[in-house]
Specification:
Elements (H helix, E strand, L loop, with lengths): L1 E2 L6 H8 L5 E4 L12 E3 L13 E7 L8 H11 E12 L4 H10 L10 H10 L15 H10 L2 E8 L10 H13 L2 H6 L2 H4 L2 H4 L4 E8 L2
Parallel strand pairs: 1-2, 1-4, 2-3, 4-5
Antiparallel strand pairs: 5-7, 6-7
Length: 218
Amino acid sequence: MLDCPAGEGALVEKLIAAGFDVRACDLYDELFRLDDVEIKKGDLSGTLPYQGQSFDYITSLDGLEHIDSPPQAFREYRRLLKPGGHLILSVPNIMNVEERLKWLLFGYTSHFKPLSNQFRAQIAHDTAGKHEIAVHANPIGYNELRYHLELNGFEIQGVYPDRLKANQWLYFPIVVLIRLAAALTPKARRRDRWTRELASDPVLLGGNTLIIHSVLKT
């Protein structure tokens, strides 16, 4: 199994405890804290330092939104996984009802705020120049994830939220309106535009994070 980006190794530690044989990779390998686990330096926007078809599983949590070229990352997932291999991705959920309303009102979502010069300077200071750790540069929703997965030969097995928000009930009238509009959409358009999926509980009512499990077709 490959975990990339691995960060400090929190997920790697849990995966090893669960019995997986894990390799770790991150743009800032010096931040990795597990002394007994191999860590390699690699950028998801480029080519990772592994041979093709090396892994049965890849976990890539909260990484795509930080990199310059998310499409390249999907090509790397395809290259590195064996046929039938499993890919677990997570990104900030910009398609839940709260984030849709924030976009309408303010023009940006919670996780993808305007990156002014002052804001970027503060991030550079706080992260000692490792701004990729903190900057969310590429908003990626369900539509983009599914497009790139299917383009690269993956089939989605499941879509999951991290946890529901406590104040979700406040948005119930908007949820009803969205789902009514979805129900009134012609069947062919619902299929072509993924209307049902975009109004599903994991996407519309999900929390801060959207998690997708997919398998590389054989």
